[in-house]
Amino acid sequence: MSKTVQPKPKMHSFRILGRLLSYLFHYYKGRMIAVFICIAATAAAGISSSVFLQLVLSEVITPLTEQGAQWADVSESLFWIIFGMGAMYVVALCASVFYNQTMAIVTQGFLRHVRDDMFSEMQALPIRYFDTHTHGDIMSVYTNDTDALRQLVSMSIPQVFYSCIAAVTLLVIMLLNSLWLLFVVLLGVVIMALVAKAVGSRSARYFIRQQEVIGTTEGYIEEMMGGQKVIKVFCHEQRAKEDFDKINEELCDASDKANAYGNILMPAVMNIGHFMFVVTAIVAGLFVMFNVRNFTILGWGDTFTASVAMIGLVATFLNMSRQFSLNIGQVSMQINSVVMGLAGAARIFELLDEKPEADDGYVTLVNANIAEDGTITESKERTGKWAWRHPHQADGTVTYTELKGDIRLFDVDFGYVPEKIVLHNVSIYAKPGQKIAFVGATGAGKTTITNLLNRFYDIADGKIRYDGININKIKKADLRRSMGIVLQDTNLFTGTIMENIRYGKLDATDEECIAAAKLANAHDFITRLPEGYNTVLRHEASNLSQGQRQLISIARAAVADPPVMILDEATSSIDTRTEALVQKGMDALMQGRTVFVIAHRLSTIQNSDAIMVLDHGRIIERGSHEQLIEQRGTYYQLYTGAFELE
């Protein structure tokens, strides 16, 4: 199967941020508005010290020194200035506590929604997506990328918003105080912006690469963990380590460069801020020294020259320029987290933007009452009989077709990628109750055919009809509900054995699950376990043998009681003795059902109604066991051992 994935265009950072904020406000609009208001209040309190300093100089110090005022004349003004400052800091404290507590709650709730949305989206994705993405890479989106998003939402966004509000407010106040000194500050801002752009763009590129390689690393680790026995059997530990070292080195290189550029940014910005402060102080000192008039845009220079008020104004301005550079530095400190968070958000949005499995079907599966004359009516209760409910768009009528399991393929072509067809002109006729077997070398197309029956993939050309209905018209959930499948690779979930069997039919009673286990000949070994059917299966059912796991998966398919059964090497992991027991159960399970069997052991398919021999995606022989033996073709050679399946 091809693993080729077409690269997707990368989303712009501002677009990602805008979408993230929209996503966040969708769930927590009221709280986020309150948070931003509190952040603005906290920022205002942070810069109020400069404003209060200027008020002290203009309302207290200047009258005392230049106008000969007495302490009693200015004491009331000083009191209200101090009171106002104290009130501002109390408000800032309350606002800061509120928004930090609120953001902690909002962040965790938001991540819960993100994970829920990702998991819901993942359930709707086609099998093709999981065939072309490693499980470790997908898991990295749930862990590393989500954690990077957590830091962005909980810390970086509030801090950047705080610093931006403070910086803009300071710029406005500095503009009102001195236009000429503001030019010096703006010159420093331009230099900061150029440095931030040059360094930040490189840092961003490597942080994005870092998140991608983390996914690759986890995918490789997940693959190696699953294949640990194979690695040890073939003594490939050193080779596996060398391959991991290459991936790990790539991750280390990306992380080194990302952090190197990221750690340069803040010191560079802060030192530019220090330089800007010195230049501003020198220029302001020259203005004061030479009694430059029109020093401010408010005309204060017309009234005061080298006075205490003018010196106070300069001191206030310098304090604000210092605060301004500190806020810019705070923003630069968050660049790394912002870039990592946006990179993680981009990968999360890529998963959320994956096209869900298309389903344009409108024929559904319903419980049915079938009269002796063949009349079919829909039933709201379980009857044990099923029918296809087929609404006709042309005239609005609804017809019912009994579910029998008649499946036919007509000249089907298929390719996992359009440019490479792997099935050619495949035609198969499976009547209700027939057993159809597929034989062929690995890669001949056996499993691919069964994947087309339940529409894990859609055909490129031809038709597949189910009880005379084109399967493209049948809703996929109803189509798959009518089929049971037992795979070569068993997939059992954490939980009890009873729960794993019931997975095939969620409303099945304990008695039905036990009956299914008996049918699959799993009942005996289950009852010998310490907890019987309540035995809890550990991760991947590692406390059971491979054969026991397969028996439970067969019981799971049996409890579903579908009219069509697909057995993909269902007994390949079972020893010969167990296979004999299972085969009896399988024969009972297959009774009256349409069955498609894939098997390398030809002894298990001799009683098939038809055997299809495939080679490179083409059916080269078909017929019963006896007919194929008489033909003395490929099947005969396989059966007699003239050559073996690869």
Question: What composes the largest sheet?
Answer: 6 strands, mixed
Please count the helical segments.
19
Cα(first) to Cα(last) distance is: 17 Å
Low-confidence runs of at least 5 consecutive residues: 1-7, 293-306
**Overall mean pLDDT score?**
80
Strand order of the largest sheet: 10-13-14-7-15-16
Oligomer: single chain
Percent helix among the residues? 55-70%
Give the beta-strand count: 16
Rg (CA only)? 37 Å
Class by helix and strand content? Answer: alpha/beta
Strand portion, in percent?
Answer: 5-15%
Shape: elongated
Transmembrane segments: 33-57, 77-99, 160-176, 182-200, 272-291, 297-318
InterPro entries: AAA+_ATPase, ABC1_TM_dom, ABC1_TM_sf, ABC_transporter-like_ATP-bd, ABC_transporter-like_CS, P-loop_NTPase, Type_1_exporter
Domain ABC transporter: 407-641
Main location: membrane
Which properties best describe this structure?
ABC transporter ATP-binding protein/permease; transport; ATP binding; Type_1_exporter
Can you describe this structure?
This protein is an alpha/beta fold. Helix content is 60%, strand content 13%. Strands 10-13-14-7-15-16 form a six-stranded mixed beta sheet, sandwiched between helices. A hairpin with a 2-residue loop joins strand 15 and strand 16. Helix 4 packs antiparallel against helix 5, helix 5 (179-226) runs antiparallel to helix 7 and helix 5 (179-226) packs parallel to helix 9. The chain is elongated, with a radius of gyration of 37 Å. The two termini are 17 Å apart. Residues 1-7 and 293-306 have low confidence and may be disordered.
Topology:
Elements: H1 13-66, H2 71-123, H3 127-131, H4 135-177, H5 179-226, H6 228-233, H7 237-289, H8 300-303, H9 308-333, H10 335-352, E1 364-370, E2 376-378, E3 386-391, E4 398-402, E5 407-414, E6 423-430, E7 435-440, H11 446-453, E8 461-466, E9 469-470, H12 476-481, E10 483-486, E11 495-496, H13 497-502, H14 510-519, H15 523-527, E12 536-537, H16 546-560, E13 564-568, H17 576-590, E14 594-598, E15 610-615, E16 618-623, H18 625-631, H19 634-640
Parallel strand pairs: 7-14, 7-15, 10-13, 13-14
Antiparallel strand pairs: 1-2, 1-3, 3-4, 5-6, 5-8, 8-9, 11-12, 15-16
Helix pairs in contact: 1-2, 1-4, 1-9, 1-10, 2-4, 4-5, 4-9, 4-10, 5-7, 5-9, 5-10, 7-9, 14-16, 16-17, 18-19
Domain ABC transmembrane type-1: 33-340
Membrane topology: Multi-pass membrane protein
GO cellular component, one term: plasma membrane
